[in-house]
Amino acid sequence: MKIWPKLVWFCTAFAIAAPGILSALEVKSPDGRVVVNFAVKDFAGAKDCAVYQVSCGDRIVVAESRLGLALEGGVLQGGLQLVSHAESQRDVEWRPVYGERSVVRDQYRQLAVELQETAGARRRVALTFRAYNEGAAFCYTLPKQDGAERVVITKELSEFRFAADHPTWAVYTAQGEYAPVALSQVKPGCERPLTVQLADDLYAALAEARLVDYARMKFAPLAGAPHCLVSQLSSSVSGALPLTTPWRVVMVAPSPGRLLENNDLLLNLNDPCAIADTSWIKPGKVLREVTLTTVGSKACVDFAVRRNLQYIMFDAGWYGPETSDASDARGVNLDPARSKGPLDLPEVLRYAAERGIGVILYVNRRALERQADELFPLYKKWGVKGVKFGFVNVGSQQWTTWLHDTVRKAAQHQLLVDIHDEYRPTGYSRTYPNLLTQEGVAGDETTPSPRLTLTIQFTRMLAGAADNTVCYYAQRVDQMASHAYQLAKAVCLYSPWQHLYWYDRPPGAPAKAGGAGGAESVIGDEPELKFYDRLPTVWDDTKVIHGHIGEYAVIARRRGVNWFVGAMNGNEARTLSLPLNFLEKGQRYDAYVHSDDPTATTRTRVKTERLLVSADTVLPLALPARGGQAIRIELAIEANATPAPAPTRNR
Length: 651
Description:
This protein is of the alpha+beta class and 651 residues long. Helix content is 15%, strand content 36%. The protein has 3 domains: 25-268, Beta-galactosidase, Chain A, domain 5 (Distorted Sandwich); 284-534, TIM Barrel, CATH 3.20.20.70; 541-643, Golgi alpha-mannosidase II (Immunoglobulin-like, Sandwich), CATH 2.60.40.1180. It is built from 10 helices and 37 strands. The strands form 8 sheets. Strands 7, 8, 9, 10, 15, 16, 20 and 21 form an 8-stranded antiparallel beta sheet that branches. Strands 27-26-25-24-23-22-28 form a 7-stranded parallel beta sheet. The chain has a 7-stranded mixed beta sheet with strand order 29-30-31-36-33-34-37. α3 packs parallel to α4 (345-354). The chain is globular, with a radius of gyration of 26 Å.
């Protein structure tokens, strides 16, 4: 087999129709606001390069930028000619198996171009550009051609040049601490999505979609170009021709909240669902079993039944020390550092199934890499509903391919999947919706500050679901924020598998081995827990009412006729208005409002009120520093409801 010799890849152009840009080809979004132009032109000292630019209205989002690929043996950044181009468009609605909305619209206009070298080997490359109302996307395709059957990509040279040193929020590991910096301060290895503020009313986010068997992309500074970035692959990429890259995405919106509302763009850039029968894919709320005992497990099942949770999850230690290659995930063999047992797992599985509760098993990547082909049919036989992958390798083409192969293998045995640690989604849950959720976020295991969580809300959450591992009674809640804020977190941070009470255990469960989990982590019976009891994990509609990166978020989500609102606040007390105009006109509703109240007599200091509201109501949200509110809105039962208070002005 031949590998493309001494060659890298090309510069290709898709530039925007903006003043001062000589454009050869142009594609506009359906609403005409987002424009992408394509041109082959001399650029940055090289001749006949492919250059693109993205604009929104009359404002440049991504300035003229060069595209290219470095192939094994050299770099090609010029000497191209346009061979052909074609335009097309699409406008369809599709229904995800689950999501933040029950209906997604996929609407775009597309420009596909083919380029060829003017000298040398005269190799060809195809580029596809899409303009959505929500942003733009492009990908490369290296087609089959004479003299080559495979290709090795050593670097991807996709540039993202900005016209000014805009503010951005950078992080270098998926679970790291975000830093608000100027673009010129971004270092190599910057995570995606990367949110950039271009103006008070214009935001962009650089992202990746449809990463399946390619190397992960991050961002690095572009040498010699201030406040400009270039794609940075986590490994080289090798594949048979034709080879198509993941999508490189530029989301565009007037506010961080609109970026978040538009995050279905990444799903639209992935292939449709590949699972014919999805009836077994059931999202829900999860309680972690921390004692690894039969008594503790049954207590978790009983609690799940009582409080309307759908799953319990056995964490690390049930089959031995997770970091040992000698641990065998085909049977129960407790890690003595985590539990003295006893744990009769078959009995717990029987007990849970009898009560309609699913069981999830944690398996570290060491066992998965060795045993997945044996484990998945075995777990299906046991009656296990899902697997949580732990400490998976990520980034390189090898491990990206392995991970998605393993998700597909799990689907063959009707197993749901939660991928933990550094993996970040790029929309693959559309194609294989058994991948319910993933971590890739500094969740409650890291005791994040409100500033960090409220940055994650408008950066990491653009990529899709995040398993935030919400806790409630553990002492770290008071270190992070308040209990009302904590309730709101389960609405704001979307996850089809929503782990609640992460560091807590139900009454009747023994203490965790090693003395961890004292009385403060035993789940109580405070009135506000009805909010968690009624909370769905997937939604028919989502609206971001207020959002300021690092400062505050107010998000409303609907399931059926009921709405749930989460309000999280940062370090400065403020009052925000909540117009309920998303409710159905002419209907009356009960709003159950859970708010911080230092005079409340419960250990959580949360007050619960029931207010009579309608679509004309504007609720005032008085949010203390590091506080929040959680609101459940249902069709009214009129007796004893208090009329909603008059609205107050935002401040």
